[in-house]
Design a protein that fits this description.
The chain has helices at about 25-35, 70-80, 100-105; strands at about 1-5, 10, 150-155, 165, 170-175, 185, 200-205, 210-215, 220-225, 225, 235, 240-245, 245-254. With about 250 residues, the protein is an alpha+beta fold.
């Protein structure tokens, strides 16, 4: 044992400084040996380990604060021999529930970033999304255009004022014999004088437009006193008079 001459503390034989007062034991032992006429004690120097530094940090700089996981940080906090400054892990705020975000209209928090402005309640402003249309305004159905019901009213024939309705699509005009027709004019002419062909003309009615087309009949189709060329539809307007054979009919929109 090496006794310190300053405080009389018993130090190990290999110690060079006093563990209590920090006095240099080599100097004290040399003085004591010279006084007693003995050779100075030979003490093997102890090489202290070089301090471990972090990569990229100059020697002597203060160590960085470490953010470790909870199990390891607790272990280091209990064991002080490592000489590390341990900072407790940051408190993480859980994400806001979907229903809560929808009701409050706020932006979602960013978990894992406690310092982010979006996680600050004072800076977390409400997000308003402009609506393109009011939700309580239901689409009103567009009212349909007034339906047109055209018809042909007989002005000249054996049966005056008889009405023939015109339906959507093609309406065949003629005399019923071996093929059916839509507008049968057999009862409008006498049996001694038949001028209407079996398939004389077609009345077209599509998208509110009425037109008449001659089917290359023998006696022709007339509109307001003008004969129509065959296979060329002619648009009609209310009040036009169509003549097929000896029968004259006026177009009327109901």
């Amino acid at each position: 044992m090496a006794t310190c001459q300053t405080c009389q503390f018993a130090n190990p034989d290999a110690a060079t400084t006093c563990g209590r007062c920090g006095a240099n034991l080599l100097t004290s032992l040399s003085a004591l040996a010279r006084a007693a006429g003995l050779p100075a004690p030979m003490v093997e120097p102890i090489n202290e380990p070089a301090p471990v530094t972090e990569p990229g940090r100059p020697a002597g700089a203060a160590p960085k604060t470490l953010l470790l996981d909870e199990p390891r940080s607790s272990k280091l906090a209990r064991d002080g021999r490592y000489g590390l400054e341990v900072t407790p892990p940051p408190v993480r705020r859980g994400p806001v529930a979907r229903d809560q975000r929808k009701s409050q209209g706020t932006a979602p928090a960013l978990p894992g970033l406690p310092g982010h402005p979006m996680n600050d309640p004072q800076q977390n402003l409400a997000v308003t999304i402009p609506a393109t249309a009011r939700a309580d305004e239901a689409l009103q159905p567009v009212p349909d255009a007034p339906q047109i019901k055209p018809k042909l009213v007989v002005l000249r024939g054996t049966r005056i004022n008889v009405e023939y309705p015109i339906y959507e699509g093609r309406n065949m005009v003629g005399r019923f014999a071996d093929k059916p027709v839509d507008i049968d004019l057999m009862s409008q002419e006498s049996l001694e004088q038949i001028w209407c062909s079996r398939q004389h003309a077609i009345i077209h009615f599509e998208r509110g437009v009425v037109a008449v087309e001659d089917l290359n009949s023998l006696n022709g189709t007339w509109v307001n006193g003008t004969r129509l060329p065959p296979k060329q539809p002619r648009q009609l307007k209310p009040g036009d008079v169509v003549q097929i054979g000896t029968v004259q009919m006026k177009l009327v929109f109901a």
